[in-house]
Amino acid sequence: MKKIGLIALIVVLSLGIIGVGYAAWSANLTVNGQVKTGSFNVTIAGGTPILPNTYTTVTYGSTTGVDGNNCPLSITLNLVAPGTYVIPLTIHNLSTIPVNITGDSVTGITDSLSDPNIATDFTVTTTHSLNGADLAASGTATDSVTIVVGSAAMNSDSYSFTIAVAASQGS
Q1: pLDDT digits (tens, 9 = 90+) for 23-79
Q2: What number is the average pLDDT over the span 108-130?
Q3: pTM of the shown model
């Protein structure tokens, strides 16, 4: 019986020594860090237009920033006469990350005199020169919109439309 008690004592002491040894060799490591994500903000602004006459004026609405992946800008041409108008655009990448310009679109063409032939009297085209282009963080790029007002357009009419540039996270 003494032998069993001695063996039990030796086993208990051995396990205790193993536990102390394990505790001495193990440690906890705590790492604190900060993760900062980027921001996505693309805006578009109209520049000084090239007009075929001196009495037509161009009014820009405020750009509302990115709406989903689109950055819209409303444009109104006042006292329009037949001719070709070119409106330069500047796209600003206010993001902290690069962006890729994925396209542009023109929507909402309206006029103040309810021109029945608006579809043929007023056409808007974009150069699409930036489609697929990467724009660095805090970078800018230029594009333009060409507007052709047909000879049958109603004199002194005002036309409005919205151009939107679509962008996504670049690489």
Answers
A1: 666 667 788 888 878 888 888 888 899 988 888 889 888 665 555 567 788 899 898
A2: 83
A3: 0.72
Which amino acid is residue 35, in one-letter code?
Answer: V
Fold of 42-169: Immunoglobulin-like (2.60.40)
What pLDDT is recorded for position 25? Answer: 66
Cα dihedral sign, 103-108-112-113: positive
> What residues does each domain of the chain span?
42-169
